[in-house]
Amino acid sequence: MRAFLSVAFLAIGIAIGGAFPRISETVQGALAAAGLTNARAAPPTKAAMTMSAADDSHGHGKHGHEHAEGEPKPAGEHRHAEGEASYDGAANKQSEGEAKPAAGGHKHAEGEAHGHDEEGEGKIRMSAEQAAEQDIKLARVGGGILSRHLLVPGTIAQDADRIARVPVRVVGTVAEMRKRLGEEVAKGEVVAVLDSREVAEAKSDFLTATVKADLEKTNFDRQQALWDKRISAESAFLNAKAAYSEATLRVDLARQKLSALGLNAAEVATSAKKDETTPNLSSLRRYELKSPLAGRVVERKVDVGTAVGKEGDPADVYTVADLSSVWIELAVPTTELSKVREGAKVTIVGSDDASRGEGKVVFVSPLLNPETRSARVIVALPNKDMAWRPGTFVTTEVEIAQDKVAVRLPKSAVQTIGGEKVVFVRTADGFERRDVTIGKADDDAFEILSGLKPGDEVAVANSFVLKAELGKAEADHDH
């Protein structure tokens, strides 16, 4: 029975092998493994080799060693191919020799495609209109200055040259307060009115002295005319002259007293002439307080009816400040003090990091604070829009040095690609990637040591758009 089964399997294998050489070989291998045939298979027929080669050519022409979907992948297939080569080594070598030129041809095609992409590598085609739509700003490369800064915290304070108090120079009572806190005042504007007996006496003395001086002058002029004609005695002329001189002296003394009280003699005389008969006592007692500078009322110290002027009474009624310019007080340590100079530019950054301003150093104290071992430095800062409020803490960047460089480029123009610093230079068709070497730097710009020359037109704003476009182009090429 066993002999019969062996003969049957062998016959079936030979029949199938005639039509499908590869299946025949597989069956023969299985029979040999089962011990039903000799381990060494018979050499394949010429027809089988031809069909096998055609089958291999079909498979390699499509996907190399990949099998069709659903086709089994018998183990030891590559070893079996080596077995085929042992039957006809020359034929196998012939097949390998034919395969190599095909592979070489594929490499050549790759080389041609790669060379074609190399021509456009690092270049981006983009018209001027497209660049404008992307808000890409361009600038010509040139030399410039790099500034080094020292970071120092500071506090905003009122400018001592732009703050004033409205003082009380006489004893009296507050009759009017014309300004509220925060209101604007002009220089010389009346801000308050006092009722003062002291002022009334001073005005009265001046007006009386003025009237008496006028009378004495009239008498002196008449006596002089009579004396010239030798009609009157010389003694009368001399007495009139002495009286007039004394009256003039009294007017001068009264005028000085008015001036000491902050009153103008001409204004007092003009006010007195409004009443042709007797000076109005209420106007004589009226004392106007005027603002010594233009600004805003930042402090109000008295109310209507408050007694002022005496010892222990308020010495002033308002504080007026011009906040169009403020100071920033810095405490610079001795280790950095030698780097700070008067006139140096200073950048001020607010506590919210959104407010920025430009000022300059106006004072560097020669004295040190014995407790903090630091020196007081004052920075003047324009404050036209009143954005900087006294008492606010800020950070300052004090310029301590300047370096002149041949090629200066804004930091916004430099991008990093693959660890390299690059910029995008404008070309006739668009932009070109250019690798650069960075030198010195400040807060806003780099020194370019190589890769650019003065006159090159570079994207300095929104250059990240070009970086993204370049990345997309390289990704498409890799795919």
TrEMBL record:
Lineage, broadest ranks: Bacteria, Pseudomonadati, Pseudomonadota, Alphaproteobacteria, Hyphomicrobiales
Cellular compartments per GO CC: membrane; outer membrane-bounded periplasmic space
GO biological process: copper ion export; plasma membrane copper ion transport; response to cadmium ion
Pfam families, A to Z: Beta-barrel_RND_2, BSH_CzcB, CzcB_C, HH_CzcB
Positions of the CzcB-like barrel-sandwich hybrid domain: 162-322
Ranges for domain CzcB-like alpha-helical hairpin: 201-260
All copies of domain CzcB-like C-terminal circularly permuted SH3-like, residue ranges: 407-467
Ranges annotated as biased composition (Basic and acidic residues): 66-83, 107-126
Function in brief: CzcA and CzcB together would act in zinc efflux nearly as effectively as the complete czc efflux system (CzcABC). The CzcB protein is thought to funnel zinc cations to the CzcA transport protein.
Family annotation (NCBIfam families): RND_mfp
Keyword Transport: yes
This protein's name: Secretion protein HlyD
Residues covered by the CusB-like beta-barrel domain: 325-398
Tree of life domain: Bacteria
GO molecular function, one term: transition metal ion binding
UniProt keyword terms in alphabetical order: Cadmium resistance, Transport, Zinc
Residue ranges, annotated region (Disordered): 43-130
Family per similarity comment: Belongs to the membrane fusion protein (MFP) (TC 8.A.1) family.
Coiled-coil stretches noted in the UniProt entry, renumbered to this chain: none
